[in-house]
Amino acid sequence: MYFDFLNILALATIFAGVVWVVDDLWCAGKRRSGATGFSEQKKYPIVIEYSRSLFPVLLIVLLIRAFLIQPYRVPTGSLEPTIMPGDMILVNQYDYGLRLPIWNKELIHVREPKTGEIALFRWPVSPGVTFVKRVIGVPGDHISYINKMLYVNGKPATQARLNDAMEMSDNGSASKVQVYEEVLAGVKHRIYIRPDRPAEDFKNLVVPVGTYFMMGDNRDDSDDSRSWGFVPSDDFIGRGILIFMSWDSNAHRVRWDRIGQSLQK
């Protein structure tokens, strides 16, 4: 079990529910009968009072957070320019199947991640950490990356040069990047290429059954499957669908133009 927000929320909900049930089955009867010092006028102990008050709220939040939708704040620029640091995205929890919190057991299978989608998942190196990347390869795919161009099953993800831009790092420093429009399995999106960094080529990498190859759109500044390997299907959390808020920590302002941008392309 990973002590992330969802699992902590699930444990809190279970605790509040158990306290409520025990109180109704055991303590409430004693209060009504006046046994062992209980009386109708006596207030609930604080733990019972809070558990009874918060359980319905916790349960509703848990059901929405675990099975429908969740917010996620993107901390890094690995998916620039599609997703910027400080973007807050909505993640569809349902698309990749419904899983039971804490045990991470699949309750309902819906579908598998598709090439080109932006997905939230647990980092295989440290499953308590959440990453967001683009799905590049699905099970059985042959992936190559040659001179900073992707090839999936021998077909290139075509690139069209658009313009140059400046990438702002977390510490406020700027680096020149080239902006391309890439078409990956019919999905059009923009990527960053750093001309000052050498290509890290690999050829004919086969994606094993039950795993996926993930990469960021900021190709020369992304910690992804090129470094730590494939992502098991059980580690997927959901699919990114929308930017609902964006905060530029360098300029200390809201990026109003990014709010409402769809991530489903």
Strand content: 35-45%
CATH architecture of the largest domain: Ribbon
- Write down how many β-strands occur, each being a DSSP E stretch of 2 or more residues: 17
Alpha-beta classification: alpha+beta
List keywords for this structure.
265 residues; alpha+beta; Umud Fragment, subunit A; 2 domains; eight-stranded antiparallel beta sheet; four-stranded antiparallel beta sheet; 17 strands; 21% helix
Fold blueprint:
Blueprint: H1 5-33, H2 46-67, E1 69-73, E2 87-92, E3 98-100, E4 105-108, E5 118-122, E6 130-137, E7 142-146, E8 149-152, E9 155-156, E10 159-168, E11 174-184, E12 187-193, E13 202-206, E14 211-215, H3 225-228, E15 231-232, E16 236-248, E17 253-254
Structure description:
Helix 1 (5-33) packs antiparallel against helix 2 (46-67). It contains 3 helices and 17 strands. The relative contact order is 0.16. Strand 11 and strand 12 (187-193) form a beta hairpin. The protein has helices spanning 5-33, 46-67, 225-228; strands at 69-73, 87-92, 98-100, 105-108, 118-122, 130-137, 142-146, 149-152, 155-156, 159-168, 174-184, 187-193, 202-206, 211-215, 231-232, 236-248, 253-254. The chain is elongated, with a radius of gyration of 24 Å. It starts with a helix and ends in an 11-residue tail after the last strand. It has 2 domains: 5-67; 72-258, Umud Fragment, subunit A, CATH 2.10.109. It is of the alpha+beta class and 265 residues long. Helix content is 21%, strand content 37%.
